[in-house]
Amino acid sequence: MRYVEAGGTRVAAIGLGCWQFGSKDWGYGREYGETTALELVRTALDLGITLIDTAEAYARGASEAIVGRALGDRRAEAFVATKFTPAAPTSARVVDHGRQSALRLGVDTIDLYQIHWPNPAFPLAPQLDGMRRLLDEGVVAHVGVSNFGADRWARADGFLGRPVLTNQVHYSLLWRKPDRGNVGYAQANDRILIAYSPLEMGVLGGKYSAEHPPPGTARRRNPLCLPENLARAEPLLATLRRIAAAHDATPAQVALAWLVRRPHVVAIPGASSVAQLRHNAAAADLDLTDAEVEELTAESDAFRPVGGLDTARGLVRRFRAPDAGED
Predict the structure, then answer these.
(1) Nearest to residue 18, comparing CAs of 67, 60, 61, 57?
(2) To which H or E segment does residue 168 belong?
(3) Of 25, 34, 21, 42, which Cα lies nearest the Cα of 278?
(4) Rounded to whole angstroms, how far apart are CA atoms 157 and 152?
(5) Domain-embedded: residue 257
(6) 127-158, pLDDT tens digit by residue?
(7) What is the model's pTM?
(8) What is the pLDDT of residue 209?
(9) DSSP letters of 108-145?
(10) 293: closest CA among 246, 247, 257, 242?
(11) Tens of pLDDT, residues 40-88
């Protein structure tokens, strides 16, 4: 496992995203949260994966509780991250929710506590005041944000009066928006960018197509899983498959390797099985050539998803259609 160091903190380049823990939206089955999820966390630690990311919003706190049970006596091996949902985010509410998350996780200190989404209806300063109180009380060790632009991330830094260590954002070969600000901010300020949905819910694994779109409620909500967009992504997917074959790897591993090759960037893919987790972890040590990186970047630059109106129509059609893959 390769590690990334910034702001005096060291985390694995590949982490474990726990969005699916306790949720039925992924179609993994009712037993996943109480069996596979526990094994995933423990195997992740065995593999040197330190960053375990969850949120109070994931399955209404169930994901945090599952992570806490899975850690057990191995808590010291993990860098535990969770998130506050900023509905009416007063300073007092931030503090209260941080304490509740620590209880669900069964930890004295949350390694990284993040504001899950920016809430433009409420000022940012009180939220960071609550975060500062949690830092002073020792309930959290580091503060992060999620889905913030680079300018808002910088403002959060100022309000906290200390480094806001991380920003967790949607980032992948099919979603390059962070390249327009957040990646550079992390690199210039000794921070970490955490990439969520780095495999686009399995699309970058290369097994889905316009004729065979991915199943499950969560994926049905993702515009990139629309048949129209899968067709447009096919040139990139074909390149992933070809480069993967040259390295005796999988397309998903190549997609992750391209992402974490960037300085100060780590990725938190989810996993439906221990086998998939092992494949994700191995991606951290996959060495792509400069030419391969350039080719993937060029194909990524060329990808253009369908427009907003067509996306809305496609999602309506998708939800009206039966899905034999759902549990």
Answers:
(1) 67
(2) strand 166-170
(3) 42
(4) 9
(5) yes
(6) 999 999 999 999 999 999 999 999 999 999 99
(7) 0.91
(8) 84
(9) SSEEEEEE-S--TTS-HHHHHHHHHHHHHHTSEEEEEE
(10) 257
(11) 999 999 999 999 999 999 989 999 999 999 999 999 999 999 999 988 8
Confidence band for 187, pLDDT divided at 50, 70 and 90:
very high
Q: Does 326 score more than 50 pLDDT?
A: no
CATH for 171: 3.20.20.100
213 falls within a domain? no
**d(C-alpha 72, C-alpha 65), whole Å:** 11
| Total count of domains within the chain | 1
182 inside domain = yes
Q: CA 299, CA 233: separation in Å to the nearest integer?
A: 9
Q: What is the pLDDT of residue 219?
A: 72
For 133, phi then psi, to 5°, come to: -65, -40
Q: Is 58 a catalytic residue?
A: yes
**Any domain includes 244:** no
| Contact between residue 152 and residue 118 where contact means Cβ atoms under 8 Å apart | yes
Provide the residue range defining the domain that includes 258.
3-202+250-287
Say how far apart CA 24 and CA 42 lie, in whole Å.
22
Task: Given the residues 28, 58, 196, 208, select the one marked as catalytic.
Answer: 58
